[in-house]
Amino acid sequence: MKKKFFFHFNKKKLKKTSFLVKKIFIFISIKKMAFFEKIFFHFNKKLKKMAFLVKKFFFHFNKKN
Asked: What is the pTM of this model?
């Protein structure tokens, strides 16, 4: 009884489910991209700060010599 029900249920829901799963995966991948972009942006900001500090340091160092 349960198996028959599940088979019937699955046949009807399979198309809807696959559609939803695709939608969810697309949503997740978009979210992931946003997440990675955020990390990259944060990292980029840090890199810029570091580059600035390094430049400052070298400028200071060159002034001394």
From this structure: 0.37
The tokens describing 6, both together, are 């599940």
1 has pLDDT over 60: no
Dist CA 13 CA 6 (whole Å): 10
- What are the residue ranges spanned by the domains of the chain? 1-65
Sign of CA dihedral 33, 38, 43, 45: positive
Distance separating alpha carbons of residues 10 and 18, to the nearest angstrom: 11
Report DSSP letters for 3-41, one per residue: HHHHHHHHHHHHHHHHHHHHHHHHHHHHHHHHHHHHHHH
